[in-house]
From TrEMBL:
Pfam families: Multi_Drug_Res
Protein name in UniProt: Quaternary ammonium compound-resistance protein SugE
Domain of life: Bacteria
GO cellular component: plasma membrane
Subcellular location: Cell membrane
Membrane topology field: Multi-pass membrane protein
């Protein structure tokens, strides 16, 4: 169950990162509120997951989900372009997240 909580926490990291972009430097109140609420939810869920998961496992997985998810969201929502080398490193990050889960 705590792994599911950790995954949801990582997804909320994507929410706040993307909504921060939409907030235009916190100048749009609605997106600023979404950013802050997303941060709070993400951190609370991470804290809950670390009650039973080691922080050395939970934190890298949380940040990795946030990083990969934000890359994908950036491509979909903002048309971000990645080089082939960047894609390679994103894939390595994803493989690392799965590896951490499988070996813990």
């Amino acid at each position: 169950m705590n792994w599911i909580t950790l995954i949801i926490a990582g997804l909320f990291e994507v929410v706040w990162a993307i909504s921060m972009k939409f907030s235009h430097g916190f100048t749009k109140l609605d997106w600023t509120i979404v950013t802050i609420v997303g941060m709070i939810i993400s951190f609370l869920l991470l804290a809950h997951a670390t009650k039973s998961l080691p922080i050395g496992i939970a934190y890298p997985v949380w940040t990795g989900i946030g990083a990969v998810g934000t890359v994908i969201a950036g491509i979909i929502l903002f048309g971000d372009k990645l080089s082939m080398l960047t894609w390679l490193f994103v894939i390595l990050l994803l493989v690392s997240i799965v590896g951490i889960k499988l070996t813990s």
